Amino acid sequence: MPSSLHALVTGASAGIGAEFARQLAASGCGVVLTARRADRLEALAGELRERHEVDVVCLPADLADPRAPAQLFEECARRGLAIDVLVNNAGYGVTGSFLSRPWQTHADFIQVLMTAPAELCHRFLPAMRERGRGRIVNVASLAGLIPAPAGHTLYAASKAYLIKFSQALSLENRAYGVHVLACCPGFTHSEFHDVTGTREQMKGMPRWMWMDADTVVRDALAAVDRGDSIRVSGRINRAIKGLVKLLPDRLGERLIAGGGKNFRDST
């Protein structure tokens, strides 16, 4: 990508988000990093500037704040940053059953994983269409394509939303040169399970179920450039998706429920 381009990556402080920033910077794209942890953003920014000599801007923000998407858009405009690549990666999990958490916890989750990505797309898309080029990657999950187990009640629902949203947005914007992708990884090595407190449960998962962030991101960037609207990362995950589609709903739910209790807190 030409050096004049800028990518905005949310949730860029670690894991898949940080890897998106690294690979986009390696391609010559300027990067705008946003997440809550300013110190982590600055450390990553220093790494990217030194390795790739690209423009890197840090805009710390908490997307649980309903004002944050507009503030990010306005700050990019104030700095004259044209966002040609938008990666909606920010996300986390809420453990436990739906009623075990106060509503505000769920409201914040919906804001970060559903409302903020939609608003950022709505704000940055018009300029992409005017320029006749743009890329949007919404980081969803294999969880949005298979039956949802108990626990993390809104997680799979939010990912299914991102998948359908991305499909529709892709169809609406292809004619304008804007490609939209729902990236659907399975289990990926990152800090996700440390944050949710489920690292111990995950130790029981077989090694062949896991992917690394580098592979997931490389695959997603190639897919969005091809014009795909959905990309499930990894052959094993694509096989799981295909198998679940063939099963009756009730049998699929039983299989997921049986395996899900080993790594989810449904209390």
TrEMBL record:
InterPro entries: NAD(P)-bd_dom_sf, SDR_fam. Keywords: Oxidoreductase. GO terms for cellular component: membrane. One of its GO terms (molecular function) is oxidoreductase activity. CDD domains: SDR_c. Belongs to the short-chain dehydrogenases/reductases (SDR) family. PANTHER family: DEHYDROGENASE/REDUCTASE SDR FAMILY MEMBER 7B (PTHR44196), SHORT-CHAIN DEHYDROGENASE-RELATED (PTHR44196:SF2). This is Short-subunit dehydrogenase. It comes from Dokdonella fugitiva. The lineage of its organism: Bacteria, Pseudomonadati, Pseudomonadota, Gammaproteobacteria, Lysobacterales.
